[in-house]
Amino acid sequence: MKFSKQVLELDWEAKAASLSDGLKEAVLKKLRKRGLVVAVSGGIDSACVAALAVRALGPDRVFGLLLPERDSSGLSSKLGRELCEKLGIQYTLHDIAPMLEAAGCYSQRDAAVRSVFPAFQPDMKWKIVMHGDRLNTDALNVFYVVVQVDGQEQRFRLTPQAYVQIVAATNFKQRARKMMEYFHADRLNFAASGTPNRLEYDQGFFVKLGDGSADVKPIASLYKTQTYKLARHLGVIDGILNREPTTDTFSLEQSQEDFYFSVHYSQLDLILWAKNHGITPEEVSPEMGLTPQQIQRVYDDIDQKRRTTAYLHAQPLLLEEVSELKPFKIS
């Protein structure tokens, strides 16, 4: 199979029809629910799922949720509202900051930051990042906290304990959002949607029992580039189509490659496709403008993430078999 930058191109109407038919069958027939709840983040993935759900089920059977918190960008809610109004779906905005405050999300997170930067104050803008230039080094990933102090960004290396405490605390955000999704899903007798694209689903870029929890994940087979193109085909608003992916988790803007992925999604999509189809780094190199060694580093990073995040996909472990339920499947 020959590799090129066109391998992700599809017949977008055919793909929209296929996924919308599948989503309709999943929600109405397999799950036997009346509709679908979508947490609309202002990003491309949830926008694509919302637009796909409207095509599959009609606007009256789709309910949108806008769930900002203290660190969310105001642009996210603005774009989320605009999308819901264009799609003609009912939606509500619920600020989850009080829930997070009560759960200790902010206090535990701030304490971890202060352990490496004692002068940190809650009103300072900040984020966490990995060390840069991962294409050109085999060094282990190291995380830093970046804090804006008097208009200048300062970087402090995180200890392993501080890093895991920040991640544990900020994971409250995704879990609180999913709790609200399931409240409305139960209230309406709707299904709860998941919005990961293929990169996020494959590479474990989600929170277990948070954004990783769902009744149906409509775009988990689509690479990020494909998600953008399908969203455009489905009529998603330009403000979202033109927006770069962001975690929208920290008060300083953070790209997904700052925190997790080895390269920009436009490169990673193609490299992941090549790896999935058994294409060697030497074959990928000329098309991508990267050396075979750089491609191999990305391949290795893909494998490492698959290994370390496999548990996120796993069902709970049973110590003894419950044979009566083993073959159970939704039908």
Low-confidence stretches: none
Largest sheet: 4 strands, parallel
**How many angstroms does the end-to-end distance come to?**
36 Å
Which secondary-structure class do the elements indicate?
alpha/beta
Strand order of the largest sheet: 3-2-1-7
Radius of gyration: 21 Å
Helix content: 40-55%
Order of helices and strands, N to C? HEHEHEHHEEEHEHHHHHHHH
Q: Count helical runs.
A: 14
Roughly what is the average pLDDT, rounded to an integer?
95
The gross shape turns out to be: globular
The fraction of residues in strands falls at 5-15%
What does the model show?
The protein is an alpha/beta fold and 331 residues long. Helix content is 48%, strand content 10%. Helix 3 links the parallel strand 2 and strand 3 (90-93). Helix 1 (12-30) packs across helix 2 and helix 12 (281-288) packs across helix 13. The longest helix has 29 residues, at 160-188.
